Amino acid sequence: MRVAVFVLALISGISAQQSAWGQCRFSACLMISYELITITGGGIGWTAPTTCASGSCCKYSNDWYSQCIPGSCTGSSSSAILSSTSTASIVSGTPITSGTTVATSSTSRVSSSSTKTAVSPTGSFINPVLYEDFADNDIFRLNDTYYYSASNMHFSPGAPILRSYDLVNWEFVGHSVPFLNFGSHMPGTCYYDCGLLIDDDDTMYVVYGGTNVSVAQLSADGLSQVKTQPVFNAADAGRNGIEGNRLYKRDGYYYVLDDDSQGTTVIWKATSPFGPYTKKILVDNINSPVPGGGTLDQGSLIQTQNDDWYFMSFSWAYPAGRLPVLAPITWGSDGFPLLITDSSGGWGSSYPNPLPPHPLSNWTGIDNFQGTELSPFPVGTVVIDFTKMADGDVAGLAAFRDVTSWIGVIRNGTDYIIQVRVNATQDESTWATTSTGTVMANVPIKGRKVWFRVSLDARASGTKLAQFYYSTNGSSFTSLGPSAQLSSGWQIFMGYRFGIFNFATKALGGSILATQFVNA
After folding, report:
1. Among 81, 134, 309, 436, which is least packed, fewest CB within 10 Å?
2. Are residues 277 and 300 in the same domain?
3. Do residues 311 and 418 share a domain?
4. Beta carbons of 91 and 107 less than 8 angstroms apart
5. What is the pLDDT of residues 100-113, one digit of tens each?
């Protein structure tokens, strides 16, 4: 195979209109947010020029992929030739980035003056506050508005940003990393698992590191480092590792919040950002509020404008991903926070609302949803015009992860077939393709327009199955092939996404037109 491409949408879904998917040099996974972009691939090892579909220009981010973006070109619509010695894969090549996204660092301020709301909260909320894959959260408040940054690992754009006015109802703002042309784990370039604190005198400090944790003081403009000093390590907490550092200040004390990725959250306290620190356990392997969910890891301490405090963490809940959960905290006489648990000592499935509810309208403005909430049973439907497919092209809709299954259309000469293929796999360490999957069903199609639908039971306590459907008129759908098992492994970290794809097996030049994607 010379070409491999997947363009990914959040499991929450996208609705976009009239997007041509041509073929351009690409061998990594690219996530799209609001608007489908034109993209295809020649794969690592492809040495011919990139040529975008009509009306698009090819943009490069690195040696592994390029993307065709609709619009007029300032120069040629074809790229220069890039060389590579790697082998292309049918599912995915080298990731654009790896590990925690660089821009998910914590931005905290010391307790500042604020006006308490005159309206008391009413009602309660249910965990998870979002049935969405938003892990490694970092939340801060500006006046009465809360901002939530999450990691999304190898996907691009990176670091999705959400906004809320009540800590329960969240809406998309965008992404803080539109592109990144190097790995976010690049040594010496990025602070790893970092948290930023702006002190009373506007001095900026960054806590960072895994296993060995340090604090750095930044220059006044925040663009250079004045000093850095180790402050503690995982062994000090009796742990093998530490991650997800966040830095706060309250009542003259500095606090570092982190965890061991095994269900234990540690809070550290000192009178100076450089220590010495004492520690206490905040959460220690308590029950998850998500049915079938696993341990609770990482998160943010949040001070409301009413001077109440909350802890937003996440629960491992594959195959859906890592889901945000919220709980109130109190402060003990020793100056350490205490989590308010349910009667069993676990994370509560429900708590009183932290603030007066502030419901939000449709949270992207362009997605087509049935109702006001997403569910753990996402159903994605894409409409594809494949009139301009080239011989050997394959296009369709996937349940995408390290174990991928899909339904798609394949052109073989003058014949077109709809195919279901399940269990395409990747190596969990190298991302190399280990299997292109097994063909489970084929059916011929005569027209040049098709609706593909994939339904998922993504609950951690559910069947964890994907089912595939197709339609030639958009109203009556036919089930094709058996259900496919979804992966519940944690190694790739991200949960399942819907993937719209188009790849060539014989020659570049073909394209499809994806006219709509809907999550119901």
Report:
1. 81
2. yes
3. no
4. no
5. 323 333 445 454 44
Q: What are the Cα distances from residue 370, in Å, to 200, 367, 375, 406?
A: 47, 10, 10, 24
Instruction: Report whether the peptide linkage leading into residue 482 is cis, meaning its omega lies within 30 degrees of zero.
Output: no
Spell out a b/e string for 179-194, using b for 16 or more CB atoms within 10 Å of the CB, else e: bbeebbeeeeebbbbb
233 in the same domain as 188 = yes
- Those residues with Cβ within 8 angstroms of residue 143's Cβ, 6 or more apart along the chain or in another chain: 114, 305
Say which residue the tokens 């369709």 belong to. Answer: 396
Classify burial at 485, counting beta carbons within 10 Å of its beta carbon; exposed 0-12, middle 13-18, buried 19 or more: middle
The values of phi and psi at residue 62, to 5°, are: -160, -170
- pLDDT tens digits, residue range 302-350? 999 999 999 999 998 888 889 999 999 999 999 999 999 999 999 999 9
Determine the pLDDT at residue 493.
80
Please give the Cα distance from 206 to 113 (Å, whole number). 23
Per residue in 129-154, pLDDT tens? 998 889 889 999 999 999 999 988 87
Range of the domain at 166: 126-352
* Same domain (yes/no): 309, 208: yes
Residues 348 and 371 in one domain: no
Q: Which of 55, 48, 49 has the alpha carbon at shortest distance from 20?
A: 55
Structure-token match 């901002």, residue found: 147
In this structure, the answer to whether residues 317 and 440 fall within a common structural domain is: no
In the listed set 352, 377, 412, which residue is the last one of a domain according to the structure? 352
Look at residue 335 and tell me if it is in a domain: yes
Q: What's the pLDDT tens digit per position in 435-444?
A: 999 999 999 9
Cα–Cα nearest to 457, from 350, 325, 324, 317: 317
Mean pLDDT of the chain: 78
337 and 391 within one domain: no
The total domain count for the chain is 2
Domain containing 515 — which CATH number? Answer: 2.60.120.200
| Boundary residue ending a domain (321, 352, 383) | 352
296 shares its domain with 421 = no
Q: Is the dihedral of CA 116, 122, 128, 132 positive or negative?
A: negative
What is the number of other CB atoms lying within 10 angstroms of the CB of residue 18?
11
* pTM of the predicted structure, to 2 decimals: 0.70
